[in-house]
Design goal:
alpha/beta; 7 strands; MeTrfase_dom_put; 5 helices; binds S-adenosylmethionine; Rossmann fold
């Protein structure tokens, strides 16, 4: 990896940045999903979770965080430390320092009711995006929601991404694509039957 993924989080310091706007959309989707699934116990997995702020900030402002079990997968040591610190108040939230591009890193954490793929699809090859989407049914409980992001810079891959989700048994719940920033945030619900987890293999490799 060539990117300093710890420093990357400073883009969140500007509340008007595209990244901050993206975060607010993701957090809104997570909050709506929590409302919809209440009062059931639910399981969340977050790939390439960074410092985990999307999920953790939402849970901090709710009274029903105890019904959420979550596993955050993150590779960068400093981000893992910050995520663990932020998650310390939630005993059912674990942060694994692992390669989220390897299927076995998800052992025991899937199938999940909510899968977060934020900040992944813009950093891997198009082939890996497609392969990961095709593996997602094996990571999802039937009815699970996947929240994903991808920038819409040319060539815009989001139309293909949305079609790959459809072909893999998902229906689109929302797609956020504002005119003034290239951010894209989608949410897709898995409508197919239970599937075996992805075989131990590489799902994706970061190219940045
Ligand atoms: C674009 S950031 C997204 C962080 C977070 N999901 C968010 O949206 O704020 C990508 C994150 O993926 C992490 N990462 C990169 N390659 C990874 C890998 N193979 N396994 C796990 N995490 C990885 C980076 O350290 C970084 O924190």
């Amino acid at each position: 990896m060539t990117t300093d993924w710890n420093a990357w989080h400073s883009l969140y310091d500007d509340p008007e940045s595209g990244l901050s706007r993206r975060l607010r959309v993701i957090q809104g989707l997570i909050g709506d999903w929590l409302d919809r699934t209440a009062p059931d116990d639910v399981r969340v997995v977050s790939a390439c979770a960074g410092d985990g702020r999307d999920l953790l900030q939402v849970l901090r402002n709710r009274g029903d965080a105890k019904r959420v079990t979550a596993t955050l997968l993150e590779y960068d040591e400093e981000n893992v430390a910050r995520a663990r610190s932020a998650a310390a108040e939630f005993p059912a939230i674990a942060v694994r320092q692992v390669d989220a591009g390897r299927a076995e890193s998800y052992d025991g954490a899937i199938p999940a009711d909510l899968v977060l793929m934020a900040g992944v699809f813009g950093n891997i090859s198009d082939e890996d995006v497609q392969a990961t989407i095709e593996a997602l049914p094996g990571m999802c409980e039937p009815g699970a929601l996947v929240i994903w992001t991808r920038h819409r810079g040319a060539p815009d891959l989001t139309p293909a991404i949305r079609s790959w989700f459809t072909a893999s048994g998902f229906i689109e719940e929302s797609f956020f694509a504002p005119d003034d920033v290239e951010v894209g945030v989608g949410s897709h619900r898995y409508t197919g039957p239970p599937q075996p987890p992805p075989a131990n293999s590489t799902l994706f490799t970061f190219t940045r």
